[in-house]
CAAX prenyl protease 2
Amino acid sequence: MAEEKDFLPNLLTEEMKHSNGDFVAPDGLCWLSVLSCLLLACSYVGSLYVWRSDLPRDHPTVIKRRFTSVLIVSGLSPLFVWAWREFTGVRTGPSLLALMGIRFEGLIPAVILPLALTMVLFLGPLMQLAMDCPWSFMDGMRVAFDPWFWMLCFSDMRWLRNQVVAPLTEELVFRACMLPMLVPCAGPSIAIFTCPLFFGVAHFHHVIELLRFRQGTLSGIFLSAGHLMGPVLCHSFCNYMGFPAISTALEHPHRLTVLSSYLLGVLLFLLFLFPFTDPSYYGLPTPVCTLTSSPSSLCLS
């Protein structure tokens, strides 16, 4: 345990230390963190509605306009973290980009393991999809490696929004920028459950976001791996799969096999959750965890 605490450097500001050197949150840190996150969330969702149009949201023109505004806000979002750090006086060894999960150390396992864990959770829907798909496995492989297929995908504005722009910008804003501001005052565990609330507030037209298990899982992955790409890929995969069609599974001709796959996927997910989110796979210390002196098991190997 003493060795683990050595990975958590003391913050440099004197008023943030006790006589024994432990981290002490400066007065007003939590209020400033919450207000910063709320402002960032409102800026993100507000950027989607700056364009007035009678066209439906899936129209290519509407999607392109929203791409422009949301990419601008997302590109400026690190400034919120920088301003928060300057106002609070929080100083740590890791750089601002590292705190936001933009780093090379442990990148490969941070890409593979979280995505594999998410696919395990979706074992039931994947089994159902495979059984209903008219293509053979080799047909699917040929399509996956066909450059014309990917050119077609990237020319589809809805695909580009759901699989690339939305996962990348939302994870950058609601995970990479908010968690570094929430962890110092709330701690890793509470921050995991607090972060989805801002996502739900920003997406007030989707109240279900307040209750989505996925958001907490992605926050946990970010804290454990300390990388942005893991949550981005998992988010993209979840968007592709959609909400599990359990009602369809109950009426499937091979109902027993499909439902068994659903159950097995959940059990395997719970079994592999902690091993696959062990920070030692991704290079200790995960930078965002250096912002607290009382890390949860998410920040310790």
